[in-house]
Amino acid sequence: MAILRNFMVNRRTVVAAGGGAVIGLGWPLVSLGAFHPAANQGACSMNFITANDGARIFYKDWGPRDAQPLVFHHGWPLTADEWDNQLLFFLAQGYRVIAHDRRGHGRSTQTDNGNEMDTYAADVAALVEALDLKGAVHIGHSTGGGEAAHYAVRARAGTLAKLILVGAVPPVMVKSASNPGGLPIEVFDGFRKALAEDRSQFYLDIASGPFYGFNREGAKVSEGLIRNWWRQGMVGSAKAHYDCIKAFSETDFTEDLKKIAVPTLVMHGTDDQVVPFGDSAPLSAKLLAKGELKAYDGYPHGMAAVHADVINADMLAFIRG
User: Do residues 299 and 307 make contact, with C-beta atoms less than 8 angstroms apart?
Assistant: First the structure.
């Protein structure tokens, strides 16, 4: 467990040092009526699609069916609920917003196989096909960024318009001869060990510390965000989460990034303690044909939650641009 100490912090210490935080939503409360089902012809529905191997993939699909779709890909070990702030914000802006629970996560089937990027991308393709999405913007955070990038080069013509990667794992996380700036495999072995021994405490430690930067001096700690992160993680499958560590840390997305032809915004915090900035975002942006790098000084891995007002506005500008 020593290898994890730089990534985790005692939860009681964090809470004692912090206090309640008001997290910026990034959208006006007065706009809530704009996405009432009666106002936009689109029902706020919760549904499942069936993947190629029979796994059931849960998804949210809110907003007008004739509006441009935005598809959100969540991080490990979370669910579509990670994106609730952004779903509400973009729904109020008139978009159709869609977010799914990756297989083995949240409300989707707790599969004991297929927990790797090829199958994750195939599940996304099945969702896009089932919903008949055209000209969609795909937005992925962390592991979801890898999933979105892996899907992007496999997307049918006309289905993908733009891509946004937020604190995303590409090009590759693990250290190797070709990636000397990566994290040692021992870090991810430590993740697996901690998950197998006490998943519940491990998830509390991540949420209380490095994920949102709550282990930094002066951080305003949100107990609600910590509990919600833990809640999402504990709903999913321990086996899928264990397997997914290999998927997000060892998958090399270099060739995917080279092949992505659509405009892509790479957003990353410089104080990301989970996916370190230097070995991720700048490298991804250089590999992309139409990549734009936007770095956020001092922002943590979970910046879409703790700095939602800034992140939402920048996403919106890129989508509209």
Answer: yes
CA distance 86 to 294: 18
Could you give the number of structural domains in the chain?
A: 1
Q: What CATH code is carried by the domain that includes residue 187?
A: 3.40.50.1820
Token output for 33: 């009526």
pTM of the model: 0.87
Q: Helices 185-208 and 238-250, interaxial angle, to 10°?
A: 120
> Residue 191 in contact with residue 248, Cβ under 8 Å?
no
Helix (H/G/I), strand (E/B), else coil: 206: helix
d(CA 213, CA 222): 11
What are 20's two structure tokens? 């309640």
Per-residue model confidence as pLDDT tens digits over 4-59: 444 443 433 333 333 333 333 444 333 333 333 333 344 444 599 999 999 999 99
211-262 pLDDT, tens per residue? 999 999 999 999 999 999 999 999 999 999 999 999 999 999 999 999 999 9
Active-site positions read 142, 272, 301
The answer to whether the CB of 25 falls within 8 A of the CB of 308 is yes
Its domain, for residue 290, covers 2-320
